[in-house]
């Protein structure tokens, strides 16, 4: 399931301004190449909306900047329309849509079909049987028959086909009322893509089901380990007790997961996967007149059918707070949610504006009163807009010493201010300015265009409403906002979820079934796939960077300026890049955070935030281990004002003891929270494995050092930042020379730069034996990483590394994924990669990963170790990997400031050329023998450190000691505090 912050750009049209709005934004009709379509006047994306004769919606937004196309095939159905007796069914189907049809994914359909029919019948028998002994016997038959059927199946043939045509990001997601299949394809592969997709949706075959079902079990268990998901599901259950938003979850119940029905899945497909309930959304490099004809040609076979209507009981008003409690190992937090009407209503449209008034990252009530003043560790508000209902969600994390009720009080106080109109009069115009910038940014990227169009389609929001956002938003008054807030937000009509740090005593995991590994027939290829691969494609010539040609250079005083001109719009991005970081001075990251809470003699920290937001500009100071970056961005018309604001703040910020005490408290709480985060714990283990007890991850201030920090020391460091040598990076409408001229009087630098402080050195460990690093965490799953330090960076290896990674461990068509997940059903997520370093004097690192149920720990390690020590040979898979890299490179376009950062990355590796060209030119010279030799030299029979995060209740020391010398690290050792 894909959780996302849904801010749908749709706003209230008022009677007094309706005539004006209609004159600028109206639906119009036109016809081209024999196909009628609709469009909205004033739409900067120039999107066309077609409805084919069978009811299929096709939305096309052409933009030729890159020779690629983002595609979505969207179905207006999701977990909301799951049968109550078979929850999780839409999500099952999403997984099974990658398995093929009777034409692809099969070696011999005539022999495979009777076995699949038998499996269908066995599952129905299994589901109707209550006796556990009989169920086990039936499941043995399912497992046996599935193994026989798999002999005639070709696993991942869909993924191989997409990879071979150069696709990226092959995936899908299911939510409440949408199931969406996503691909990013070369524009030259349109016919191959449409041929495959038309067949994919013709009559999907539910093959290799029981291993895929186990992957869904793994996904369910990962959800049980995800406290945020539990909070979300608990909140929706309380907020929508009469709607399937609250009554059902996308993954489904454990009981329903254990009793799947292939018949019900097929019924769901036949009911909802019909053309009048589907949309094909495409944005990228194509001619819409040509594209619509192609889509019609390939999808006209689909037959319109009535779509079952979803009905639900109206929710009753909430008259007193509905309290819920959630327990889990992650830090405590609080969520408050208010219910609102659905997406197509005017009130739901107003909701998005209200959420921006509360939280916009700079000048919202939550931003200024709770975050900037450090009253909470973090706080935010967002709208979640769905078809039937919507919600305003408030989330807050306490600082040390606060209770969750304290958090509730602080957040609800801000709601009271909203209702009283206690927010700046210029906040709405500031939001308008920022939306102007956001719209420009989104329209730059073909992927963002497609995503916005897809969201509007699946949620039923009129695209005209989206296009008219800024116009309508600018007409909303403060009085209307206050009236709206008082209508919907009161002291009693909300759901409140207390997330406590502690054991979840109601946790029940999905137990592993017995699964015999199935055949994946890696070398097989169906006649249909041969047909698709053999289809002609227009040749696309790769475009490589020439750093001397593509980057403009100038001098701003003593500073080097690297610039790429923005000829498309009025946006700018400016960076000051310093070759120093926390390895040079551990105070730098703290000073970078401190700056956001500081003001000057003339302006407070809040004043600076509001001033930047009013300009639709922002700045950020980040200090990483070796590089510190100042970034300023906005509209070019406000360039001088935005840069002047930053320069004033960095040069004149003054010590604030109260702000520092607040920051120290926040940092201490954040440190405590990090120890309750399994991802952070794993990062610490990986760093420990590479460098030992003193490593980059725990190279932080001790608690004593943190307490000893003085405000004056941090401010002195901030004041001195401009005295260190740095590079200016600019992407915007000005030329490098013009930029240098306008920046020089704004950005003062000394006659001579200060030397960087000496950087701390970290030495990598050379392992001569297997080791196991273990950290305990209360969780259902076990997270396992294999890691070892490899040889020093060698640019001549890069083409082989790229091919090896694509073939062995990257993506759904790789050897690792096919074996660990598809054949053996040992994990939901698994991969392996040989990672080259960011700088020339460092070493490469090999990492493999499996996230599995704790009761499959030994099987998962055995499965991965077999692959590490014996690389399977598949010429077909190697050919797919080679094609994917080649076609991806042919259509890859590095643009905007990406050109400069590509150059700077190459420079750190000691290169003065675009390394992609070397890889491209070498691909056809590399064969399996080269990949095998690389594997044998770098991976096979090598000592590894196994980094394991799991519950010691579920894994024993004996389990761990099987794989190497065991070290059980406490969290102080991992984090350094």
Query: What is the average per-residue confidence, as pLDDT, rounded to a whole number?
Result: 93
Strand content: 15-25%
What's the number of helices?
39
Helix-strand makeup class: alpha+beta
Global Rg = 29 Å
- Biggest sheet overview: 6 strands, mixed
Oligomer: single chain
Task: Flag low-confidence runs.
Answer: 1-22
Describe the strand arrangement of the main beta sheet, using strand numbers. Answer: 3-4-8-5-7-6
The rounded distance between the terminal residues' Cα atoms is 36 Å
Number of strands: 25
Helix content: 40-55%
**Overall body shape:** globular
Give a brief outline of the structure:
The chain has 977 residues and is α+β, with helices and mostly antiparallel strands. It is built from 39 helices and 25 strands.
